[in-house]
């Protein structure tokens, strides 16, 4: 009876492998629960632990912080691998616990911190602002770099904006890490000066006009109505000029 049962189970397993040949089971590290997919890797230097991003029909190592094209992490010896292995493929995990190569360049990584991509090819860093993240760290990073366990769950994470000078400087300096970003940086800076200048000029003009109007009414109460009408037209003109300045700033950002 036992022999017949074993034979039946073996027949079922062989039939399953025959029907679903794209499923390949690893003989090592079968306890980690990873389910990976063999995918074509365009970046020949990609290794296990690297964060990968989509690039047309293949995958490459992520090379920019908060990369919206993050796809997963290259792994080795997963429990289950989908698709056949070739010379151009690596097993990739897009959800679950994996080892990820990270650095402390954006701050020390502690358990529970969100991890995102960085400017180091394939490397991760601590997420400190809004953007796409790879997942959450399951352990602390010891030292400046290494591999830590991360639960991969790719998503967009919004961080509440904190208006402080140090944060503004950090954003500006990070945008200048690549020389090709300098023209875009100047464009946004010019738009900020135009829009902010228009708003400040309009606000100061409104305060001055309001103060002058109150003083004029105090000196000549009989002309109250005409002074109020003049103030109203003055306010409309200031609003139009301010809106024009802000509109010009938006035009610079969107079309230059």
Automatic annotation (TrEMBL):
Residues 1-26 form the signal peptide. The chain crosses the membrane at residues 185-210, 231-255. It comes from the Bacteria. Keywords: Membrane, Signal, Transmembrane, Transmembrane helix. This is Uncharacterized protein. It comes from Candidatus Woykebacteria bacterium RBG_16_44_10.
